[in-house]
Amino acid sequence: FKICRSVSELKEMNSKAKTIERDLELRHLPKQIVSKLGNILQVDHSWKDVMCLIPDNPWVPGQDLPSGNFSQKYSSEQISLVADECVRSGRTGFEVLIEEWGTSGFIRPKVMDLIKLLKQAGLERAADYLEKTSVDKMTATFSRVFKINTCSNAVGFEQDTRETLSNDTFETLKETNIPFIPFDLILDSIRNGCKIGQGAFGFVYKSHLLIEEEKKTVAIKMLSENEAISRDLKKEDLFKNEVEILSKCNHKNIIKLEGYSFRNTELGLIYSYMKNGSLYDRLSCINDTPPLSWKQRLDIGKGAAEGIVYLHTNFNPPLVHRDIKSPNILLDENFIPKLGDFGIVRLGSYGKHTSTSIRTTAVMLELLTGLQYYDETRENWDILSYVQEWEGDEVELLDTKAGDWDIEIGRKLFDYTETCTREKRERPDMVNALNMLSSIIDNR
Q1: pTM for the complete prediction?
Q2: Does residue 234 have a known ligand-binding role?
């Protein structure tokens, strides 16, 4: 008796069934249903009414439709482009719309979302047809698959992973102690949460998840579809590296990975939620947050350095982060810094790793001055060059938003940053750099 089926088998079963699930993504609608709805909505070009009602962020599929004024996902120009494509290809407007909307976003629209839109547009004939050909529950097969897939050694996990991930990634995931979270739970969690950030590596959502029988506030990062930083390091590599590295880390200044999830090419990483966001955001006072005090800044700088030294000294061979910067330093509810974004961490040699002290020094200068690392409006764009070329007293650069600095400590910290940016042979490694920093901060 085979309990778990592959994703492709389940999709085929759904497409052949007499009824479809309302939880089915629109991109998987059977062709005959798409064709029928296309013909119904081609009358008076009613598909345009539907397209006008599709909301944009922060709404995501699965939520109730917004009332009153809302941001539209598609502009009038985009609706015209769909109409032009209909003329060119001979397809109905609905067929073109489903092809576009049905494949957009990390959380893709489902049958239930389309039913709501059709009703809101007053298109009762189309809504009635879709309701009669769908049922308001998930199939028992899907339910069994994701109930079984509650840990990384489940049968269903192994079968689906082998279909979607490489053998190397599969073996890595099996060996970690990080929980596998069923992908449907991730989608439900995101629908009930909110987007809190996005970057080159994807979107981040704040939400709540039940992980190993404990309800936790988490940040869910969905890796971008085109995630890649080089020809040799693709989205799956970043995913595997992050899970593998963070499963080995246990330090107060390293972000905790609470779980991971995937379905086909969609990959998600679940972290402990960091209430105070990134160091970059707090230095920039994003959303009118109060400035960090100078004492908080010193503690953050030291904590980040302690996290780096942990990576360099507690692994054999050492781990080199390679992307230390203020956006990748996260702050918890007590402003304790946590290093994040471990996707491009690599194994290092047993050398001094003095290049890391340069990047850590740039972060310290951001803490001291409140200036961004890179600013095209400055004569010297990067902060290291800007401070080195400063002709006045360096303490004049101390960020006044941080309060009344201890000037003597400020001078010592600028001297510290100068030492850490010397020529490679004269530059301290991170262990010695941390000792120097601690001697300044601990004696304040």
Answers
A1: 0.65
A2: no
